[in-house]
Amino acid sequence: MDNWLCSLRYRYKLIENSEYEGVKVLKSAGLQGKTVAVFGCGDSASYSDTFCGGMRELSDAAQEAGATVIGSVDASDYTYDDSEAVVDGRFVGLALDDVNEDDKTENRIEAWIAAISPLL
């Protein structure tokens, strides 16, 4: 398998223990030559200071394992206070908030798939 899609839950700036074990496995997975796209689901109102932050942990782990990470998304169309998943004004993957911005979810998914598909 040459391509991966990844997501995890992220609460209060701590990855849940079972998922952290998965991140450790991902870091040592030997992903040289692989392409990884990351997505996350969050609540930008209730967790506006950590919105989809777990995507950064996955993106960093995949890169550490040698993968090429694709699928960053412009963060300017989102309402949130802070996120570790934003680098240079872009989420490291597709951030979704089906609680507060459900009206944007379908278009965001379609645009993201169209953007990453040629790279997979």
UniProtKB/TrEMBL annotation:
Instruction: Give UniProt keywords alphabetically.
Output: Electron transport, Flavoprotein, FMN, Transport
Sequence ranges assigned to domain Flavodoxin-like in this UniProt record: 1-117
Q: Which family does it belong to?
A: Belongs to the flavodoxin family.
The molecular function terms in GO held by this entry are: FMN binding
Q: Which species does this protein come from? A: Hallella mizrahii
Q: Could you tell me what this protein is called?
A: Flavodoxin-like domain-containing protein
| InterPro entries reported for this sequence | Flavodoxin, Flavodoxin/NO_synth, Flavoprotein-like_sf
Q: Which Gene3D superfamilies match?
A: 3.40.50.360
Under PANTHER family, the record lists: FLAVODOXIN 1 (PTHR42809:SF1), FLAVODOXIN 2 (PTHR42809)
- Cofactor(s) the record lists: FMN
Taxonomic placement: Bacteria, Pseudomonadati, Bacteroidota, Bacteroidia, Bacteroidales
Give the residues annotated as coiled coil: none
Residue spans crossing the bilayer: none
